[in-house]
Amino acid sequence: MRRVLTSAAVAAALALAVTACGDGSGDPGSAPAKSAAPAEVSGTVTWWDTSDATTEGPVFQEIVKDFEAKYPKIKVNYVNVPFAEARDKFKTAAQSGSGAPDVLRTDVGWVAEFASLGYLAPLDGTPAVDKPEEFLPVPAASGKYNGKTYGVPQVTDTLGLLYNKELLKKAGYDEPPATMADLKKAALDVKSKTGAGGLALNVDAYFLLPFIYGEGGDFVDVQNKKITISSPQSVAGVKIVEDLITSGAAVKPALQDSYTNAETAFKDGKVAMIFNGPWSNADNLGGKVFKDNPDNFGVAPVPAGSAKAGSPLGGHDYTVYAGSKNLDASYLFVQFMDSAESQAKVAGKLGLLPTRQPAYSASEATANPKIAQWAKPMETAVERPWIPEAASLFQPLVEGYQKLAGGQTATEPMLTDVATAYQGILKGWSL
């Protein structure tokens, strides 16, 4: 049966507007030149797409072909760049002034950094910022820096608890765990009663955040310029992860390529639960235990800690390179790729969440039941700090997490080391 996105689900998506993002400091960009009339624009746009080349890239390439059909004078040089390589690769190219793409699919956490370095063209007053009133405000805020728009939101996301309904039912559960304590119990019950693993962890800093947020912790307190990663709240959150590993509730994590290992174990039915985002919908539904039984694939909010249920707000923005020789063509390309119609197509085919309100009610989006399923997890999304240093905060934390997962350290000394590393990144911030 086709499921549609109800008005309540749309309202849940709009709940992202509750908090607003403050702008950073610095003013690297200048006002853009007036754009040429669309029919007069010609040239080539090189686009670095950082989506998954196998499951997502083909859909974006379809939309590129639609763009070229509408604007036959503009050709698109499509390049799929692995997400893990894209940030450093773009910075190197932009700094050297050679080889940077005209348009980049940018992680929301990179925009402030790239803008502060002068690598991005300001987009206000160009066709790229089209119908801004349609955007959900918090995803749109990720593209702002110093009062100007440097990125327009392509997709939004967060983490949820993905679960195998049949395995949970065999372990005696009709519903997914709602708290971290319940998560541990359910995982141990799955392990003892089904022979499958209960929970697979992705040893990555982003995936550690639901545990930290759940206890009221965070990376930093931006307003007070304070480093909070080693606060009692953050320590309490990471201790939950440490306990999941040592108790056996979580299978022994892979320290290398842990994302692929956890994802493969889940879609093959070897573990009952993982934390992941809507970008994994298509991959999971193609897996052995879900391909012929998609209803077995469950999506729920991340379990709550003692303070709340909280999961990081993620997503991607379209940005334009400040040194592009094809600015007018790039603006039109972003406008087309980020239209409500294009977003609805992406939502329908891939299950990625739109950033424009009208896209949620478009027939192509409502045809995909996963769009509605992610409304509840999105209610727990926590806005990340939109500061130039934000992307740099992940590496020290993932290195510490790997040591913790490998049994080389414990929570308190690990987070103390991370906090010390943050002092080298965030000059003048206090502990």
From TrEMBL:
Q: Does the keyword Cytoplasm apply?
A: no
Keyword set for this entry?
Signal, Transport
* Stored Gene3D superfamilies: Periplasmic binding protein-like II
One GO term under biological process is: maltodextrin transmembrane transport
**Single GO cellular component annotation?**
ATP-binding cassette (ABC) transporter complex, substrate-binding subunit-containing
One MF annotation (Gene Ontology) recorded for this entry: maltose binding
Q: Quick check: keyword Membrane in the entry? A: no
Q: Its domain of life?
A: Bacteria
Cross-referenced PROSITE patterns = PROKAR_LIPOPROTEIN
Q: Which residues form the signal peptide?
A: 1-22
Q: Which Pfam families does this UniProt record tie to the protein?
A: SBP_bac_1
- To which protein family does this belong? Belongs to the bacterial solute-binding protein 1 family.
Instruction: Kindly provide the name given to this protein in its UniProt entry.
Output: Carbohydrate ABC transporter substrate-binding protein, CUT1 family
Protein species of origin:
Microbispora rosea
Name the lineage: Bacteria, Bacillati, Actinomycetota, Actinomycetes, Streptosporangiales
